[in-house]
């Protein structure tokens, strides 16, 4: 079986080495003797997932301005995205793509842009200073590590948190709850190559598409992961 | 009261400079202390007749040094901050060394390199006559976020009284000051090495900045630097007033044609194409300042031999080439790796590119490695790849994903072990190319010391 990995809007959503996620998935699948294909969907063309032709959908972070363009475009596919989430389509949204699925985004001037509204949280952008974080969180006993580079935090209710943070902040500084996990939909504020940083979570994600997958990690990322967890948790 | 504070701060600044100089503490410290005494000190200096600021992601230092050199050759005195930092305290430190006790700058012209993120603290204090922006790219993630964030940081603080000199091949920085400032563009025309497609790992401008549709490029020089044109909405950058043509890579020369009839053949440092952009930008500024063509052409003739951040040394029979790769900057790192494609013979490569002060600076965000083009390491001619530092496993994981042969990799979390192994196995039949980030300069020194010892020992054995 061939696994199709769709990268949504790579012309905007590749700010922090995010493409590494798709490349790692492909490398892992191919190492295990599976076939994998990366499809890049540019804005203003119909995404593959709309017709159910994406096994794994990746949505990366973008700039605060292009986020608004992306949002107006994604609203056209809101129903397809909603049913993908309800039907267990494997989806990973990273960085500020997490915000697209909440209620709204408020800019520093107080202007609000309505989001997809699948979940009840909302985002507030702050001006000028960016927020960086090196973090570790728990997902069903699995430690997930990652980086953050953000110009916003999210607030409000979050009934389906993905991670319980052990180091670093949740979706804002006051909470340890981070991201969203519902069925096979994962959204997290972590940016960049989160999958190569977390080889076990990657195996878990692939298994959600193909239960029979039993591929091993490549040569080095497990050691890198162990060192990072040890350093960050002390 | 403000004036008194300023006068006191000048006296203190000059004293701190005099005391700090022998200890190498004179380039930043006077400014830090002066800004404590007088927070608006930058606004109170009586700036010279002309002030030029140089900003942008890559090429600031090279361009401002070049500008200083050319303007000085025209007989004017120039103040610059080349020895210090490019943030507010560095500028204040540079200014106080050149000012009298009333705060009047003595030099005719100030050429100040300005950190992109410091615009808010600098352009709000004084209005530069000219700001040259070399380019805008993705840079260190933790400091710079993304290029749009940096664009806004500069754009929000521009004055209508400043003339902008902009890179007409850069669709990001080329939009600075639109409808606000007078803008003069410089660009490099298509060369024999221009490509139809972007051949680099990252391109920071794929979608049209105006209509967000996919942008077309008539050609690319590198990354998003080229000739962007939008077939959907017609977006293109304005015509350039200074254009580099006839780039001769073999002989290291090119021609600059100006709108007012300028026509000069100038040399550039061979193998360093960025130099062509830096020189053309500097020519544009110099012409705006009234420097003659003769002075420009005459003063740039001796620059082609300067090597900058590239160093080639022999230790006995072992050749070590070291190249600085700007910290956490995927564009800089990718460009320096390209050197391997052009270099003859077999090579060993040493990667000291992740933060060697990771323990002090805090755990490094290694995301940038995935934006770096490591394909030159796939070449058959690259035999061993040494990777050093606490993030060596992260680098190796990235290289494996990108298809580099893992059998070539040698990993060392401890730099001294790396040095020892390298010295034991260095071959006189291969070049060793060391890529290092700024803080790893000490490791390069360690490698060279080990290599010197090795060469001495071999020499003794031969005798």
Query: Which CATH architecture of the largest domain in chain B?
Result: 3-Layer(aba) Sandwich
Using a beta-carbon cutoff below 8 angstroms, give the protein chain pair with the largest interface and the number of residues from each chain.
A-B, 42 and 37 residues
Spatial order of the strands in the main sheet of chain B?
2-3-1-4-5-6-9-10-11
The percentage of residues in β strands of chain A lies in 25-35%
Termini distance of chain B? 75 Å
Total number of helical segments of chain B? 16
- The first-to-last residue Cα distance of chain A is 42 Å
Give average pLDDT of chain A, whole number. 95
Level-2 CATH architecture of chain A: 3-Layer(aba) Sandwich
Query: Can you give the helix content of chain B as a percent range?
Result: 25-40%
Oligomerization status of the protein chains? heterodimer
Describe the structure in your own words.
The complex is a heterodimer of chains A (234) and B (463). With 234 residues, chain A is of the alpha/beta class. Chain A has a single domain, classed as Rossmann fold. In chain A, 26% of the residues lie in helices and 29% in strands. Chain A contains 6 helices and 14 strands. In chain A, the strands form 3 sheets. A 6-stranded mixed sheet of chain A has the order 2-1-3-4-14-13. Chain A starts with a strand and ends with a helix. The model of chain A has no long low-confidence stretch (mean pLDDT 95). Chain B is α/β, with parallel strands linked by helices and 463 residues long. Chain B folds into 2 domains: 2-303, UDP-N-acetylmuramoyl-L-alanine:D-glutamate ligase (3-Layer(aba) Sandwich), CATH 3.40.1190; 310-456, Alpha-Beta Complex (Protein-Tyrosine Phosphatase, Chain A), CATH 3.90.190. Chain B is built from 16 helices and 17 strands. Chain B has helices at 2-20, 29-37, 41-44, 60-73, 88-98, 119-122, 141-144, 147-155, 274-288, 293-300, 330-337, 339-342, 358-361, 392-401, 415-425, 441-462, and strands spanning 50-55, 78-80, 109-113, 130-133, 163-167, 182-188, 216-222, 225-229, 242-248, 253-258, 263-267, 310-315, 318-324, 347-352, 382-388, 409-412, 431-436. In chain B, the strands form 3 sheets. A 9-stranded mixed sheet of chain B has the order 2-3-1-4-5-6-9-10-11. Chain B has a 6-stranded mixed sheet with strand order 12-13-17-14-15-16, sandwiched between helices. Chain B has a two-stranded antiparallel ribbon with strand order 7-8. In chain B, strand 9 and strand 10 form a beta hairpin. In chain B, helix 4 crosses helix 9 (274-288) and helix 4 (60-73) packs across helix 10 (293-300). The radius of gyration of chain B is 23 Å and the shape is globular. The N and C termini of chain B lie far apart (75 Å). The mean pLDDT of chain B is 92.
């Amino acid at each position: 079986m061939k696994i199709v990995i769709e990268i949504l809007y790579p012309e905007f959503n590749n700010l922090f080495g995010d493409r590494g996620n798709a490349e790692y998935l492909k490398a892992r699948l191919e190492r295990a003797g599976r076939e994998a294909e990366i499809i890049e969907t540019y804005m203003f063309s119909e995404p593959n997932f709309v017709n159910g032709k994406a096994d794994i959908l990746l949505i990366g972070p973008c700039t605060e301005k292009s986020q608004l363009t992306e949002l107006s475009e994604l609203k056209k596919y809101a129903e397809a995205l909603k049913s993908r989430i309800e039907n267990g389509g494997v989806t990973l949204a990273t960085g500020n793509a997490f915000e697209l699925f909440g209620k709204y985004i408020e800019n520093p001037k107080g202007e609000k842009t309505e989001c997809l509204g699948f979940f009840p949280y909302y985002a507030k952008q702050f001006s000028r200073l960016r927020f960086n974080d090196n973090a570790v969180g728990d997902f069903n006993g699995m430690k997930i590590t990652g980086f953050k580079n953000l110009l916003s935090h999210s607030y409000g209710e979050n009934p389906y948190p993905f991670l319980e943070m052990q180091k670093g902040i949740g979706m804002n500084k006051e909470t340890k709850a981070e991201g969203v996990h519902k069925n096979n939909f994962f959204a997290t504020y972590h940016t960049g190559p989160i999958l190569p940083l977390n080889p076990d979570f990657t195996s878990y994600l692939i298994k959600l598409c193909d239960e029979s997958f039993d591929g091993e990690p490549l040569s080095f990322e497990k050691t890198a992961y162990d060192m990072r967890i040890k350093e960050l948790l002390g | 009261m403000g004036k008194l504070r300023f006068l006191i701060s000048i006296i203190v600044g000059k004293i701190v400079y005099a005391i700090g100089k022998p200890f190498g503490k004179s380039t930043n410290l006077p400014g830090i202390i002066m800004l404590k005494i007088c927070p608006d000190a930058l606004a109170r200096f009586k700036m010279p007749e002309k002030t030029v600021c140089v900003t942008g992601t890559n090429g600031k230092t090279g361009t401002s040094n070049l500008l200083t050199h050319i303007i000085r050759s025209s007989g004017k005195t120039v103040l610059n901050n080349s020895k210090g930092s490019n943030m507010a305290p560095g500028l204040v430190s540079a200014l106080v060394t050149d000012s009298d006790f009333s705060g009047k700058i003595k030099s005719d012209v100030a050429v100040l390199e300005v950190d992109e993120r410091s615009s808010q603290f600098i352009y709000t204090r004084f209005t530069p006559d000219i700001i040259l922006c070399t380019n805008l790219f993705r840079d260190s993630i933790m400091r710079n976020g993304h290029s749009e964030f940096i664009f806004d940081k500069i754009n929000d603080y521009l004055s209508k009284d400043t003339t902008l000199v902009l890179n007409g091949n850069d669709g990001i920085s080329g939009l600075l000051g639109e409808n606000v400032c007078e803008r003069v563009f410089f660009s490099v025309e298509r060369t024999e090495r221009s490509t139809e497609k972007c051949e680099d790992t990252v391109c920071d401008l794929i979608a049209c900045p105006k209509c967000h549709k996919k942008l077309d490029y008539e050609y690319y020089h590198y990354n998003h630097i080229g000739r962007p044109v939008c077939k959907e909405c017609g977006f293109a950058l304005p015509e350039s007033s200074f254009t580099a043509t006839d780039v001769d890579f073999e002989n290291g020369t090119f021609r600059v044609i100006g709108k007012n009839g300028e026509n000069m053949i100038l040399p550039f440092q061979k193998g360093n194409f960025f130099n062509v952009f830096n020189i053309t930008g500097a020519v544009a500024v110099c012409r705006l300042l009234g420097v003659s063509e003769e002075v420009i052409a005459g003063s740039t003739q001796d620059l082609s031999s300067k090597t900058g951040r590239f160093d080639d040394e022999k230790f006995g029979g072992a050749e070590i080439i070291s190249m600085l790769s700007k910290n956490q900057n995927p564009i800089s790192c990718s460009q320096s790796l390209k050197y391997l494609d052009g270099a003859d013979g077999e090579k060993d490569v040493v990667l000291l590119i992740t933060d060697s002060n990771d323990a002090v600076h805090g755990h490094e965000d290694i995301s940038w490695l995935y934006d770096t083009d490591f394909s030159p390491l796939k070449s058959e001619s690259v035999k061993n790849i040494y990777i050093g530092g606490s993030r060596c496993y992260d680098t190796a994981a990235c290289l494996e994903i990108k298809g580099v042969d893992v059998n070539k990799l040698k990993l060392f979390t401890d730099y001294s072990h790396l040095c020892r192994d390298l010295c034991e196995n260095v071959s006189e039949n291969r070049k060793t190319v060391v890529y290092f980030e700024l803080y790893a300069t000490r490791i390069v020194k360690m490698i060279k010391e080990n290599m010197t010892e090795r060469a001495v020992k071999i020499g003794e054995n031969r005798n």
